[in-house]
Each structure stands twice: as structure tokens, then as C-alpha cells.
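The data are set out underneath:

___
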Amino acid sequence: MDSKITKGISKLLSYILRHSPETIKLKLDENGWADVNELIVKFDLYELKLDFELLNYIVENNDKNRFAFNEDKTRIRANQGHSIPVELNLNETEPLEYLYHGTVEKFLSDIKTQGLQKMSRQHVHLSADQETATKVGGRRGKPVILTINCGAMHKAGYKFYLSANNVWLTDVVPAEYIEF
């Protein structure tokens, strides 16, 4: 399949399922699930070509595993990263002792005073490895990798969740738990 087409549709699908389903008048349930047939029809109404074969290819081959089907592949949702209210029903999970967050230098001053905030998203995103954090931070410029003492945070009562695509999630990371 043409990688430019699949990448473009994947980005649009991510935008729709994580931030703006109303863009194509798509309805998500309270858990972020959309009906696959409705999604395909809505794409077609806006002259965006999508069929089940392409959708399945995107879900199975997305490098960040951003999407998931239900068991019978009749529903689809984004695994995490929503700016709209959805309940992903994630279980609280004890984190690794240290996790990582990729950012860029222009945000460091605010992070040093305010810690990491979820901003418009439902959670702060953390990575299990520096390589992934570097990719995330590199989307906005030269990446700066922060080390988060999640073991200490967890002992202090902060909650952590692990998404279906292995992104660690928490509500906030106070500055005292960040190694700059």
C-alpha cells in the first residue's frame, strides 16, 4: 500500500478518534469506540477513501499502535492521547522505577516550576525507554529527555496506567520528581 496515503489517513484517523469526531459527524461512545461501518461511510461522505481493508492495514501496521479494534473488528478507538472526554477503563498499574518524557528546551522553564501537566489531554504521557521519548520530543525540535522518578511518585500515592500501546499515563508529574 502507498505509505503516503496510509500515513495521511492514519493522521486524520488519529485526529478524529482522539480529538474531533465531529469533523466527520462521527459518534463515539463514552469509551471512545466508533462503529467501523459508520466510520467508513462518514469518510466516504467527505470524499475520503477508506475501506475495511485499508483501515485494518492501518490498525495492524501503525508504528505507534495508536488504534485498536474490538474482538470482532466492528468497533475501533484510539488507545490513548484523547483531548475529548472518554473513559478508557485502564487499570491502575505500578510503574517502572523510572520513566521518560520527551520535550523541547522552550518548555523547560515552565516544567521546572509547574512540573508536567496534561494540558488539553487526559493524561501526561511517559515512555518506558529513552529512544521512544526522544522520538516524541523530536516532533517539535531538538529533543530534551526528562527522567521521571515514578517509583517515588507511586509511593507518594500518584496513580499510573499503562495504555494498550504501552504508553504510561498519569495525571501530573510534580517538578520534584523530574531529573533535568
